[in-house]
Amino acid sequence: AQIYARDTSQTRINQRYNAQFVATVVPDTVFLDLRGAAAVQAAGGGFSTQGTPVIDRNNQVQTQSFQISPYYVHRFADTATARIGYAFQSVRQNLGSNGAGGLTSQGTPFFSNQDFTANEGYAVIRTGPDFGRLAAETRIVSTDYDGTGVLRAASRRIATVETRYSITRQFAVLAEGGYEAQRYSGVPPFRLSEGVWGFGFRLTPSEQSAITVKYTHRNGFDSPVVNAVVGLGGRTQIFASYAETLTSGAQRAVDLLSTTTLDALGNPVDAATGAPVAQPFADSFLGTQSSLQRLRRGVVSISQAWPRDIITLSLSYEQRRPIAVALGSTAVQQRGASATLSWTHLLTPDTSFIGSVQYGRFDQPGGVAGQGSSDVFSAFATLTTQFTPGLSGFLQYGLTNRVNEGQTGHTLQNIVIIGLRQSF
């Protein structure tokens, strides 16, 4: 709840949550997976990534996503495991009040309210230990969307076979092939029907390290894929990832539910590698668009953990290129890079200090929210303490300074937040 003492028209309640729940219906056979997440971001961007900016409601996009998925699992001894399931997905993105924050400097909307429901069916078969050094996975996924904008009568279908052959215990070669068909509305309409392929390797130098590198053809283009977790000396971990995909803002929200799990603190991490994952619908660095985009994203971070301290340095880069635009709106290419240094220090068993600084530069030609190219600096200092199991409080000071090229002046924001957090 944000209550404004003077400008009472800005008072509102925002939804921020991330939850996952799996119920066993029939032991080892039938399961029910429930997931949901929500967050708020600035439509025009210009703030630190994964922060909590205090912004005018005209510039605020609220995203809520849900997924319910019953699935069946059957194990054929040590030969193979099959999983067959269905997922109902729902996403809603709303721009607050009069939506002025979703307009370019020329008054054309780059974001409009988005919502969809989707029905997805999938089947996965993985080989077991009986195949020795050879491992294979066959995956079929079919998704139909009923939504607005580019997701009106949209669909994604893909069938792939991926194989892995271990030459040694530490090194394996990868190969995949299959077929995909995609359909999106918008201007111009997007249609794709062609084969997919990929090849690469997986290196596992230790139990704490795994590096996967592939070169693939999907979504109509060639691109590299990198996922790496490297443990150094027991205290230091390096995470690296790079991928290119075809997606929209609303799709990114629900795709996050399908590919992540939660750590002990409720933060999303990659289900395969355990690497931290940024929530795209909570990122206020770049502006929010409702177009279909080719997304390039790369992240490298190094973290060192000591008994009372954790220090993390992260570098990220993201580029978005419009492919199809919803009727009546516009879209621009965006790109941005940022560096973040954070430090967590345990003062007492119940009290911690968290400090972070970030510098970023982004370019939004065409004037998304009238910003163009900008430099953003932010710093946060947070004191958090636990009162009882599950109940904690925090005091935070934050500063954000944004300088826009080609415009006079800059934007400076100082915020002090006092809050309570209850975990269940």
Give a brief description.
By secondary structure, the chain is mainly beta. Helix content is 3%, strand content 64%. The strands form 2 sheets. It has a 19-stranded antiparallel beta sheet, covered by helices on one side. A two-stranded antiparallel ribbon has the order 13-14.
Question: What report would you give on this structure?
Answer:
The strands form two sheets. This protein has a 19-stranded antiparallel beta sheet, with helices on one face. A two-stranded antiparallel sheet has the order 13-14. The two termini are 19 Å apart. A hairpin with a 2-residue loop joins β10 (209-218) and β11. The protein is built from one helix and 21 strands. The protein is globular. By secondary structure, the protein is mainly β. The model has no long low-confidence stretch (mean pLDDT 89). The longest helix has 11 residues, at 249-259. 3% of the residues lie in helices and 64% in strands.
Which regions have little confidence, pLDDT < 50, spanning 5+ residues?
none
Distance between the termini: 19 Å
Strand content: over 45%
Average pLDDT taken over every residue = 89
H/I helix tally: 1
Rg over CA atoms, rounded to whole Å, is: 22 Å
Which secondary-structure class do the elements indicate?
mainly beta
DSSP, total strands: 21
The run of helices and strands is EEEEEEEEEEEEHEEEEEEEEE
* Share of helical residues: under 10%
Largest β-sheet summary: 19 strands, antiparallel
Shape: globular
List keywords for this structure.
19-stranded antiparallel β-sheet; mainly beta; single chain; two-stranded antiparallel sheet
